[in-house]
Design a protein that fits this description.
The chain is α+β, with helices and mostly antiparallel strands. It has one domain. It has three helices and seven strands, in the order βαβββββααβ. It has a four-stranded antiparallel β-sheet, covered by helices on one side. The chain has a three-stranded mixed β-sheet with strand order 1-3-4, covered by helices on one side.
C-alpha cells in the first residue's frame, strides 16, 4: 500500500470521487506526481490523506489503484497533456476536461496552481495515478496517521 498526501483544497473532490459508481462532476480520481523510486501499482490499495505528518492529518479513503502511466504536461505557449497509451490532449475542451478530472475547475485553474506550487516548471514529466473507489473506501478521520513510504509527501494535487 502506498500513501499520498493532498492539499486541503482537494479533499472535497477526492471524497466525491470515492463514492462508488460513475465519476460524478467535480470528482477527483487521479493525481499527477513526480517520478520516484516507488509509486502505487495497479490493484494495490492506496491511502489518500490531507496533512500527512501534521497534527491535522486526515485519511480520506482507501481506493484501489487502477493505472499508473507516464504523463507529460506542457504548460507554456504550446499546451499539451501526453499520457502514455492515450491520444495527446491539445484542444481547450480536452485540457479543461483533464483538469476537472484532477480536481481543478478548468485548465486555467490547473495552470495557476502549477505556477504557484512549481514556480517556473512549464514542461513536467512524471506519472498519472488513477484509482477507483471500493465499496468500503470511505473512512472516518484517524487519530493517528501512518508513516509515509519513500516517494510520498504533500503532493501536487
Amino acid at each position: 500500500m502506498v500513501a499520498y498526501s493532498f492539499k486541503k483544497r482537494f479533499a472535497p473532490p477526492i471524497l466525491l470521487g470515492l463514492k462508488p459508481g460513475p465519476l460524478l462532476p467535480g470528482a477527483k480520481r487521479q493525481t499527477i506526481r513526480a517520478n520516484r523510486k516507488r509509486h502505487a501499482r495497479p490493484t494495490e490499495e492506496l491511502q489518500l490523506y490531507t496533512g500527512m505528518r501534521t497534527s491535522s492529518c486526515q485519511l480520506l479513503g482507501k481506493p484501489t489503484c487502477t493505472a499508473v502511466r507516464p504523463v507529460r504536461l506542457m504548460l507554456g505557449q504550446a499546451e499539451l497533456v501526453e499520457i502514455k497509451g492515450e491520444p495527446n490532449i491539445t484542444d481547450a475542451k480536452g485540457l479543461d476536461l483533464f483538469a476537472r478530472f484532477d480536481g481543478f475547475q478548468d485548465w486555467a485553474d490547473l495552470r495557476d496552481f502549477w505556477a504557484e506550487t512549481h514556480e517556473a516548471v512549464l514542461d513536467f514529466s512524471g506519472v498519472l495515478i488513477r484509482w477507483e473507489p471500493k465499496c468500503d473506501g470511505l473512512v472516518q478521520p484517524l487519530e493517528e496517521c501512518g508513516t509515509q513510504e519513500e516517494g510520498e509527501g504533500e503532493g501536487n494535487g
